[in-house]
Amino acid sequence: MSNQELIRYWIPSFEINRKVITQELQYHLGPEATIRPYTQMGQDGYLISSPGPCLTDEQIDDICLKSREVWEKQAAARSKNGPNKDLKRPLHQPVIISRGSSSKPGPPESRHRHLGDRGEEPSRRSVGEQRRVDSSHRR
């Protein structure tokens, strides 16, 4: 690191792809420039540290243009592999992470039928009787 003092500044992440800005930053600002995700007053963006001047409007425009190209390539690749349904905003196609059953809270017994070890319906024995039966099966 040079003896120059680093300038730290924030820019919003709007229209900026994280991979693109990470790749382009040192091209524009030099090898000592760093970037990381950062939230400023509730808005997502990037915290940039650089020994030189801040990114210019032209450099940010260049990064936004390259970001748009990356997103368009990704959308084209998804449309080849995904459903043929035309979306109003193809870049915001939902990606299912998980599927839940019921949204109502409650004990699992109320939502599912539990089967015994052999697939039969559970008996109506008391807890004490069930423990004795379970322990006799283990022997």
Write the layout of secondary structure elements.
Blueprint: E1 7-12, H1 18-29, E2 34-40, E3 43-50, H2 57-81, H3 127-138
Antiparallel strand pairs: 1-3, 2-3
Q: Can you describe what's shown?
A:
It is built from three helices and three strands; from the N terminus they run E-H-E-E-H-H. The protein is α+β, with helices and mostly antiparallel strands and 139 residues long. Helix 1 (18-29) runs antiparallel to helix 2. It has a domain at 7-81. A hairpin with a 2-residue loop joins strand 2 (34-40) and strand 3 (43-50). The longest helix is centred in the middle third of the chain and has 25 residues, at 57-81. The protein has a three-stranded antiparallel β-sheet with strand order 1-3-2. The radius of gyration is 28 Å and the shape is elongated. Residues 116-139 have a biased composition (Basic and acidic residues). Residues 72-139 are annotated as: Disordered.
Largest sheet: 3 strands, antiparallel
Q: How many E strands?
A: 3
Instruction: Report the mean per-residue pLDDT as an integer.
Output: 76
- Kindly state the percentage of residues in helix: 25-40%
Record the strand order, biggest sheet.
1-3-2
If you compute it from the alpha carbons, what radius of gyration comes out, rounded to the nearest whole angstrom?
A: 28 Å
Helical element count? 3
Order of helices and strands: EHEEHH
What is the 3D form? Answer: elongated
Poorly predicted spans: 107-117
Q: End-to-end span in angstroms?
A: 70 Å
Biased composition (Basic and acidic residues): 116-139
Region (Disordered): 72-139
